[in-house]
User: Fold this.
Amino acid sequence: MFLTHLARFGGASAAARAVRMSTKSAYRLRDRSPAFAEAWAAAQDEGVMRSFDQAMDRAMNGHLVPVYREGHIIGVRRRYDNRLLYAACYAQPPRE
Assistant:
């Protein structure tokens, strides 16, 4: 379960929290088992790549923000974040 969440989130702390395990215990397990360490690296790369892909998608396509008038949603507006695009363009995704 931990490795599944690591592949989903890309970070050990979030993955450990998701399976109710301490981060320290996860790192100890990784240090004791070479097979687990190898699976950890693969899962972490997948998680980081997934995060990178989401950032690029959001940077290129923007995200929808509701537009309110008098307390009611009357439509949506697409917002772009140039800083996110800049950061995503210069980030180094893991190599396969």
